[in-house]
Amino acid sequence: MYNNPIGDVMKLILSSCDFLNENSRKRILENIKKPLDKNKVLFIPSVPYRINNLDKYYKRLELDGFKKENVYIFNEHEVNKFINLDLDLIYVGGGNTFSTLKKIKETKFDKYIINYLKNKVIYIGGSCGAHIVSSNIEHVLNFDLNSVNLEDFTGLNLFNGIIIPHFDNSREIVYQDLIKENKYKVYTLTDNATIIATDNKIKIYDN
């Protein structure tokens, strides 16, 4: 962590596959405060809010282990409904990194995410969700389509460095180029790996 306004109280759980991978799921469950079905969670989708998509999200989150009555699906058109919720978790899963970051910034919901984390809400980010809390997402142009024409690639700056999820040999050249540029600390995450960032400490679990 670095130069962030929320001090040592926040916890970020970052992975490539979140609940869809047995190893990262294990790390998530180890690092939250109570059983998953007891957690109140705000889920931020990567695509625009559409009422006919909600069942898909609820079903996915119920398969993860959440209870529907404890799930809030973020709606960028009604941000005020999501400002003062009684939450345990904020969860941003996979999807398009550019559209997700643009939505959060344009609605100015980034400051409310910070406020939640200040109050000990735990952040879970999988792939796209891991990218957006980092320093910069420009390198994601190698993996995602910037269909929303995002021009400012600055992330939410809650994590000191940039992350390459789904890391394997095919992404090695991107990693090496970023190391040569030497602009940011670079972290790689295989599909089995998880980063736990808390209390100014970063720990990477490879399995």
Rounded Rg: 16 Å
Structural class: alpha/beta
Gap between N and C termini? 23 Å
For the largest sheet, list the strands in their spatial order: 3-2-4-5-1-8-9
Report on this structure.
By secondary structure, the protein is an alpha/beta fold. It contains 6 helices and 9 strands. It has helices at residues 22-30, 54-64, 97-106, 110-118, 128-132, 172-181, and strands at 11-15, 41-43, 71-73, 89-92, 122-126, 162-164, 186-188, 194-198, 201-205. It has a 7-stranded mixed sheet with strand order 3-2-4-5-1-8-9, with helices on both faces. The protein has a two-stranded parallel ribbon with strand order 6-7.
Question: How would you describe this structure in keywords?
Answer:
207 residues, globular, 6 helices, 9 strands, 7-stranded mixed sheet, alpha/beta, 17% strand
